[in-house]
Amino acid sequence: MGEGYPFGEIEKKWQDYWEKNKTFKVEEDASVPESKRLYVLDMFPYPSGDGLHVGHPEGYTATDIYVRFKRMQGYNVLHPMGFDAFGLPAENYALATGQHPRITTEKNIANFRKQIKSLGFSYDWDREVITSSSDYYKWTQFIFLKLYEKGLAYESNMPINWCSSCKTGLANEEVKDGKCERCGSIVVKRSIRQWVLKITKYAERLLEDLELLDWPESVKAMQRNWIGKSIGVNIDFKVDGASDRITVFTTRADTVFGVSCLVISPEYEGVEKFIKPECWKACKEYIESAAKKSEIDRTSDKTEKTGVFTGSYVINPVSGNKVPLWIADYVLSTYATGAVMSVPAHDQRDFDFSKKYGLPIVCVIDDGRGKDVVLEEAYVGDGKHINSGFLDGLDTPSSIAKVMEFVEKNKLGEKRVNYKLRDWLFSRQRYWGEPIPLIHCPKCGIVEEKNLPLLLPETSNYKPTEEGESPLAHVDGFVNVKCPKCGGKAKRETNTMPQWA
C-alpha cells in the first residue's frame, strides 16, 4: 500500500454511500425466524463534553465487528445509536460553560454524531435515540406511572447521599470512596423528600436468577455480596426505666449472652430521647460529625470505630443483664433496624470498640482454653457455648435455634431475613431531567398526570438551589396547576428523574 493512499477520501466516499443508501437500516421482517434476529445495543455516550474520548470508539469498535459478522451470517440485526442526554453529566457541563443545558446538549450531540459517523460504524441512524427528546421520555414517564400504580415507586423523607457541589441527592452507586463520582466532592448525609424505587421487593429473585446467568463466578459473588442476604432474628431490648424497646437484628443469636453494649446509629429514629442530660453535648457533637461522613467511610475496615455513650441502659431479654446504650457511626440506619448488639469476644470490630472504651469482654464460645480466658483478639471460630446459661455445652447451630425458639415463645422477637440491598433513590433536585408526572393535591393526595409527555418547561433559572429544591419549584407556570380530580389548587412534583432513568 503506497504512502499516498487517500484514507480520508475513500472513507468519506463509503460513509456517504452508506448514509444515502441506508445500508444498515433494519427492516421489520416477520419472515425472519426469531433465531435469526439480533439486537445489539451500545452504551450511549453522555453528550457532556465537546466530543468523544478514546474509550468510546474502543467499545463501539468491538460491537461493530460483532454486528457485521452476524449480518454476514444472515442475521437481521438491530443496531441503533443514541445519546444519554439528560442528567448530571450534561447539566454540569452546561453550568461549567454558562449555557443552557438544552443548547449545550444539542450542540454536543451534533458533534458526537458527526464524529461517530466519521468512524464508519454500522448503526441504523433512523432509530437514533435522544433521551432528552419528549418522544422518548414520554415512555420513561409512562413506565414510572406503572411503577407507582404497583406500589414500586414511593415518596420518602429519608437521609440520602448529598453532593453539596452538584446540589442533588445521589444513589449509593453514584458515590465512590465517599465522593461524588461526577465532580469528586465529598458526599454527606442530608434528609430530603425523595422518590424511591422498591428494588428490595425483588431481592430474593435477583439472588435466585443469578444461577440463570452465564457469568464468571467472581462476578456473581460480587452481586450476591451487593444484595447481602442475611438470615437471623430480631430481638427486643427494653430501655431501662422506660417503656421503649430497641430492636436489634443479628445472625448470631447464639452469642446474646456475650453482649457488652447495644449500639444504635446516629440517625436512629428518636435517638434524642435516649440521651441523658449529662451526655447531651458529647452526643450532639458526635451525631453532627457523623452526618458529614459517607456510609462508605463510616463502615470501611480502614476507619477506626468510634462512639459515644448515651447515659442510658437496656436490659438483655435473654440474660437479664443491664448493658449500656451507645451511639456509633459504623451502624447504619438504612440496614435492618439501625441497632446492633456488640459481642466483643467474637467479633473483631466489637472487640476493638470495647477495648477502646473499656467495655467488658465475655467469652461465650469456648476456644479450648475454658470460660475464664482473657482474649487478645476476638475468637471467631466454632466451639461449645460457655458463660451462656441454658446454652452451655451446645454447638453454634443448636444454640441459634434455641435462642430463636426462646425469643419467639416469650414474644421477645422474631425470625427475620434482611438484605444489604436498599431501595433505589430515583429523584434528583435538578432541572435537566424527565419531569415526574405526578401532582400533589391537598384534598386528593397524589394524582397522576394523564397527558404524556409532561414537558420539561423552558426557564432561564435552571441552576440548582441551596435549599435542596429543584429549580422547577420556582417555575410558576409549571408547578401551580389545577387538580385533575377535584379542580382545586395543586402543585406538580418538582423533582426530576435521574440520568439513568
Distance between the termini: 48 Å
Helicity range: 25-40%
- In terms of per-residue confidence, which ranges show pLDDT below 50 for 5 or more consecutive residues? none
> How many individual β-strands?
21
- The first-level CATH class of the largest domain is given as Alpha Beta
- Global shape: globular
Stated plainly, the CATH topology of the largest domain is called Isoleucyl-tRNA Synthetase, domain 2
Q: Determine the number of helices (DSSP H or I, runs of at least 4 residues).
A: 12
When the domains are counted, the total is 3
Mean pLDDT: 91
Taking the sheet with the most strands, its summary is: 7 strands, mixed
CATH superfamily of the largest domain: Valyl/Leucyl/Isoleucyl-tRNA synthetase, editing domain
Q: What is the second-level CATH architecture of the largest domain?
A: Alpha-Beta Complex
Overall structural class, as computed from helix and strand content, comes to alpha+beta
Radius of gyration from the CA trace? 29 Å
In percent terms, what proportion of residues is strand? 15-25%
